[in-house]
Write a structure and sequence with these properties.
single chain; 27% helix; binds beta-D-glucopyranose; 3 domains; Immunoglobulin-like
Length: 742
């Protein structure tokens, strides 16, 4: 088994070689190349290009290289020496990977970059980072995630990348998962809506985006060896549903299969997952690429639906190298299967525009991109508590800013999605400095942003390392703001308790000054033992490269907070489905099973089913305005089932409400009492009211039936409720639904 912690820093020492020449060849569509005819459908073009390819060219398209210097160490018996030489000369140093193109046919090289938050490349000069995906899910706004995707996709294109390894849409099943910040929350509808926005935005640049990590890659502990045990129907109604909806709404060119096993079979060689669910049932036309090091076989993987092996030498063997060539020769992998792999890759490159508009390095409008990520951060922050209108800060003459390196910047998550910022790490030297580190703070200082927004106030900073000193400063100020941080990342899971003495720091400061508020920079949910003793809490997530400014904008009221929680915050560890994380304490490489006995009852559905009261529920968030809603109407219209309601801003400032519609099956039969079936974010001027119409996708009212392999809406009465959160429903109407097979 590859030790990923050791491998990653080595990859970072990638080769300093250029890659410009290949683009020109790719750009040339020569005469007699009918697949370059843009007026033909992508499927036809892919078939025509395939027919013109040699077997060697086909095999080269299904085998990807990592960008590390291990490439130089691979022996000639593993991969062809010429291919390796070309890889060394072509791969973009510091990027995720590279696959050779077929220049004579106008098929470009595939230049792969991570990930959902922006272009990751520690060897380049820095890029714009969006807030974490969990943060932008909190915006409840697919238009916002589209804008973010369009921006990072543009940076990818202008940095020479045509494949973006983005679209993390695994449901947040395990609140301790170190990668939750790369995902879009616990609800399939919300996760799919915002992820589809992101993928559509990225692909609007004429490049390919993935969605990932398919599937049930719900924790990082033991991710390469664990088997996620889950009933197929439960998966189809939860995690798979999120992927199914993104496929439907964004048509990603590629899907990345995950490290783990599902019901004992590795995801990247799982016929039920890849051939049956993804390709057959959902009609996915693109290609399945493996996660880096997630392939374990040649024949089984190829025949189960894997189309491209990624990032060699992350895998133990070049399964889709000479081994695949031989398997096709001896017929254990049919030639038609190899052709299908290649046709799918060609389809994605042609359909998304990567052939017709080859990528090339160009100038990035950093200021415009900063505005995009600033807006994303502003609209993603969630105001969790605000007693006596402590916020927005008004009239405070002295403010103590404490902890969290808030004088210098804002925290980012670690691992393969970490975007290095322009201007460098604001707090270098924190541990770990290597994979999955470094720990990076983006140079957007909340302190400086507050000082410039409040020129008449004295804003003093204390690092928070000594709670007594911090409390002394807080006691002298009108308001105290404590920044707490939780660093999470790839390849490890976390505790929900804050590290070090941060809880004690908040308690000490709150004792010294009753007007204390807390800003949380975290990958996901945290426990807040001090909650009753602080006046306000702002959940800022990992807010991206303009995060410090966005925090100041919310605290001062320049921007009205409008985020809603995309996950449940538990009140205690005992409320979790698995109070103890599986796999902890096992030897490296020792396999184990995680039994997802909650099935499709993920997140708030679990809390509903068990009658648990969380610390903060899914869908919850405060505003500086107040909103009311009029009567709810449910109607069967030609376009489908719709809900109409009037939303009104009764507050004194512009703000946004998120209309949330939940449904329950009166007769039961669902995984939990209710599901989110539609939502819409609505910005309203003071006093403004607006009719909002939501269309309900019938899949959200259905249950996947294992006996037929189809979804079914069962005839009966259903309750539709408006909610301020999953735990606070305001109005309910009953509506009958007819039996329907989907
Ligand atoms: C991650 C993927 C990432 C890939 C390439 C893997 O470790 O799981 O999300 O895209 O590396 O960097």
């Amino acid at each position: 088994m590859i030790d990923f912690r050791k491998l990653r820093p080595a990859l970072a020492l990638a080769l300093a070689l250029g890659f410009g020449a290949v683009h020109a060849a790719a750009a040339q569509g020569q005469a007699g190349q009918p697949w370059m005819d843009r007026s033909r459908p992508s499927g036809e073009r892919a078939a025509l290009a395939l027919a013109a390819m040699t077997q060697a060219e086909k095999l080269s398209l299904v085998f990807g290289f990592a960008s590390g210097d291990q490439l130089g160490q691979i022996s000639d018996s593993v991969i062809n020496a010429e291919a390796r030489r070309k890889a060394l000369a072509s791969v973009v140093p510091g990027s995720a990977g590279w696959i050779p193109g077929v220049p004579r046919l106008g098929i470009p090289d595939q230049f792969q970059t991570d990930a959902s938050l922006g272009v990751r490349n520690p060897r380049m000069d820095g890029h714009t980072a969006l807030p974490s995906s969990l943060a932008t899910a909190a915006s409840f706004d697919p238009k916002l995630t589209f804008a973010g995707g369009a921006m990072i996709g543009r940076e990818a294109r202008l940095s020479g990348f045509n494949i973006m390894l983005a679209g993390g849409v695994n449901l947040v099943r395990e609140p301790r998962n170190g990668r939750n910040f790369e995902y879009a929350g616990e609800d399939p509808l919300l996760a799919a809506s915002v992820s589809a926005g992101l993928v559509n935005g990225i692909q609007s640049n004429g490049i390919v985006s993935t969605m990932k990590h398919f599937a049930i890659n719900s924790q990082e502990t033991g991710r390469t060896v664990l088997s996620a045990q889950i009933a197929e129907g439960a998966a189809r109604d939860s995690d798979y549903l999120a992927f199914e909806l993104v496929q439907d709404w964004a048509r990603p060119g590629s899907v990345m299969c995950s490290y783990n096993r599902i019901n004992d079979v590795y995801a990247c060689e799982n016929d039920r997952l890849l051939n049956q669910a993804l390709k057959q049932d959902w009609g996915f036309k693109g290609y399945v690429m493996s996660d880096w090091g997630a392939v374990h076989s040649t024949v089984q993987a190829a025949n189960a639906g894997l189309d491209q092996q990624s990032g060699f030498p992350f895998d133990k063997q070049a399964y889709f190298g000479t081994l695949l060539e031989r398997a096709v020769e001896d017929g254990s992998v049919p030639q038609a299967r190899l052709d299908d792999m290649v046709r799918r890759i060609l389809w994605a490159l042609l359909d998304k525009g990567a052939v017709d508009n080859p990528v090339a390095k160009g100038t990035i409008d950093w200021d415009a991109h900063a505005r995009v990520t600033l807006k994303a951060a502003q609209d993603s922050m969630v105001l969790l508590k605000n007693t006596e209108n402590l916020l927005p800060l008004r009239g405070a003459r002295s403010i103590a800013l404490i902890g969290g390196h808030a004088d210098r910047g804002v925290l980012a998550g670690g691992g393969s999605s970490l975007v290095m910022p322009r201007g460098g790490n604001a707090v270098p030297g924190l541990k770990p400095e290597h994979w999955p580190g470094p720990v990076v703070y983006y140079p957007s200082s909340p302190l400086k942003a507050l000082q410039s927004a409040l020129p008449r106030a004295r804003v003093a900073y204390d690092p928070g390392t000594d709670p007594v000193a911090a409390a002394a400063l807080a006691a002298k100020c009108d308001v105290a703001i404590v920044f707490v941080t939780q660093w999470t990342g790839e390849a490890f899971d976390v505790s929900l308790a804050l590290e070090g003495q941060q809880d004690a720091l908040v308690e000490a400061v709150a004792r010294a000054n009753p007007r204390t508020l807390v800003v949380v920079e975290s990958g996901g949910a945290i426990l807040m033992p001090w909650l009753p003793r602080v006046g306000a809490v702002l959940q800022a997530w990992y807010p991206g490269t303009q995060g410090g400014q966005a925090i100041a904008d919310i605290l001062t009221g320049a921007v009205n907070p409008s985020g809603r929680l995309p996950i449940t915050f538990p009140a205690s560890m005992e409320q979790l489905v698995r109070p103890r994380l599986d796999g902890v304490g096992l030897k490296d490489g020792e396999g184990f099973t995680v039994r997802y006995t909650e099935g499709a009852a993920v997140g708030y559905k679990w809390y509903d089913q068990k009658g648990l009261t969380p610390l903060f529920p899914f869908g919850y968030g405060l505003s500086y305005s107040r909103f009311t809603s009029g009567k709810l109407r449910i109607e069967d219209r030609p376009a489908g089932l719709t809900a109409t309601v009037q939303a009104r801003n009764t507050g004194a400032r512009k703000g946004a409400t998120v209309v949330q519609l939940y449904a329950s099956a009166k007769a039961g039969g669902w995984e939990a009492p209710k599901r989110l079936v539609a939502f819409q974010k609505v910005w309203l001027e003071p006093g403004e009211s607006r009719d909002v119409t939501l269309t309900i996708d019938p899949r959200l009212l259905s249950v996947w039936d294992p006996s037929t392999g189809r979804r079914r809406v069962t005839e009966g009465d259903y309750l539709f409720s408006l909610g301020d959160s999953a735990q606070s429903l305001t109005e309910t109407v009953s509506h009958p639904l007819a039996d329907r097979k989907l």
